[in-house]
Every structure is written in structure tokens, then in C-alpha cells.
Amino acid sequence: MKIIALLGAPGSGKGTQAKKLSQSGICFHLSTGDTLRGAIKDGTEIGLRAKTLMDRGELVPDSVMIEMVECCLGTLPDSMSVLLDGFPRTVPQAKALDLRLRTTVHLAVYFKMHEQDLVLRLTGRQTCERCGEPYHISFVPPLKQDLCDRCGGNLIQRSDDMEAVVRQRLRVFATQNEALLSYYEKTKRLIEVDAGLPVATLQSNLQRMLSEWLT
Ligand code: AP5
């Protein structure tokens, strides 16, 4: 199994790009945020515990996340290439992927972006409540207001995209990021992309860059 991890701050565009790359059929998209939101919707025990932390902008404990990713990866065939979106976020999670899980990250792609632009992206984000497609009121508007272009579902604001929670998520990100990047840099698995580029430009850059890793 080939694994590429997308690293970067909340709002840097990991989900947007991972969805586009997986829609083009070159890989499977595994988002830990989407998996947790699914668990909340289903009312599972993990979902209920995670919701309180997510609404406060805090991370869910490493042990819970490692088990969740281990379980998801275990359902996929070995021949599959996977884009991990939102995991790992801490060095213990990165180490778990390398040591405990049955696979290792081949490449970590860091979505680099200025903090002031991240707040604007997240507070203006709308997400389809049916298929999860992300939009932005100014940068990526839907064709019809408040409706998803892909499935016609209603567009909603995520509860953790309120400005106060966004700022806390960014603070939490800043406490983990340097150590995580250095973990992958030391083992020569880290590349950086300019996440401030327009969606389509970044998508074609990534597609070109990743196709040699994924094929
Ligand atoms: P998660 O859902 O993973 O949130 P996140 O990492 O905070 O990332 P986001 O989804 O907010 O941002 P993104 O980078 O995907 O940006 P997007 O493409 O949507 O996690 C949520 C919570 O779950 C965490 O806070 C934590 O509590 C918990 N959790 C999850 N994983 C965990 C883990 N491993 N360990 C512990 N806890 C965990 O884009 C953002 C906006 O910008 C959109 O409006 C989009 O349309 C727009 N946009 C995107 N690209 C561009 C562009 N190039 N130009 C202009 N606008 C753009």
C-alpha cells in the first residue's frame, strides 16, 4: 500500500485537493475529520467523545486516532494508494504509522500558507451536508447559492468554523507542526507546496507531482 500524507494547517486546502485527486481515480481519500464527523452523525461512543473536543478546537487523543486509522486502513486492499488527510497531526501518530501499523508514509506533502489567510478561508467555508464537498462563499462559490454543485445537498457551516474555534485550532496546530515536519524532513520524505495558489493550479501541480509516486 502506498501512502501519501497531506499535512498543513486547518483551512490550507488539504480536503479540497484530496477530494479532487480521489475523484480523478488515482487514489483513495481517507480523511480523519470526515470519519469523526461520520461517527458523530451515527451517535457512536467515539463520535460523542470526539464532538466535545472538536467543538472546542482541540485534538482527539492519539490512541483513539491511531486505532481509527488502523481500522480504516485494514479494510483497504494492499494494492491501493491512499491519501491521508488530517493524519498524522502529532509525532506519536506519525511514529505509529511507521512502527505499529502495517504500512509507512512514503511521502508527506506540506500545504504551506500564511495564518491570516487561513482564518478567512475557514470562516467563509461552506460544506455540503450530504457529500462533504467544500466550498467558500468568495473563493469557491457554488453555482446556486447554498446548494452543492455535485449532489444538490444543502451547504452548511461546520460548527468548528466559528472564528473563536478556528483561532484555537490554529493555536493547537502551531504546537505540533514544527516537530511533525522535522520528523518527515529527517527521513527525507517531506515536500512543500504553495497552498496559497488557486485551487486549479495547485491541483494540476499536485497531480503531476503525485502521479509518479502513486503509479
Ligand atoms: P479536519 O476536518 O481534518 O479539519 P482540519 O485539519 O482542521 O482541516 P480542515 O478540514 O478545516 O481544512 P482543509 O485543509 O481540509 O481545508 P479545505 O480544503 O476544507 O479535523 C477536524 C477536527 O477533528 C480537528 O480539529 C480535531 O479535533 C479532529 N481530528 C481530525 N483528525 C485528527 C487527528 N489526526 N488527531 C487528532 N484530532 C483529529 O479548505 C478550506 C476552505 O478554503 C474551503 O472553503 C475551500 O473551499 C477553500 N479553499 C481550499 N483551497 C483553496 C484555494 N487554493 N484557494 C482559495 N480557497 C481555497
How many strands, what sense, and barrel or not for the largest sheet? Answer: 5 strands, parallel
Strand order of the largest sheet: 2-3-1-4-8
Spans of at least 5 consecutive residues with low confidence: none
**Class from helix and strand fractions:** alpha/beta
| Global outline | globular
Strand content: 15-25%
Rg, rounded, reads 16 Å
Q: Please report the number of helical segments.
A: 8
**SSE order in H/E notation?**
EHEHHHEHEHEEEHEH
Bound small molecules, deduplicated: BIS(adenosine)-5'-pentaphosphate
Helix percentage range: 40-55%
**Which whole number gives the mean pLDDT?**
93
Distance between the termini: 11 Å
Strand segment tally = 8
Description:
The structure is a single chain. By secondary structure, the chain is α/β, with parallel strands linked by helices. Helices cover 48% and strands 18% of the residues. Helix 6 crosses helix 7. The protein is globular and about 45 Å long. It starts with a strand and ends with a helix.
Provide the descriptors you would attach to this structure in a database record.
8 helices, 215 residues, 5-stranded parallel sheet, 3-stranded antiparallel sheet, binds BIS(adenosine)-5'-pentaphosphate, 8 strands, alpha/beta
Could you outline the blueprint of secondary structure elements for this entry?
Blueprint: E1 2-8, H1 14-23, E2 28-31, H2 32-42, H3 45-55, H4 62-74, E3 81-85, H5 91-99, E4 105-112, H6 115-123, E5 125-128, E6 134-136, E7 155-156, H7 163-186, E8 190-194, H8 199-214
Parallel strand pairs: 1-3, 1-4, 2-3, 4-8
Antiparallel strand pairs: 5-6, 5-7
Helix pairs in contact: 1-8, 2-3, 4-5, 6-7
The structure holds BIS(adenosine)-5'-pentaphosphate (AP5).
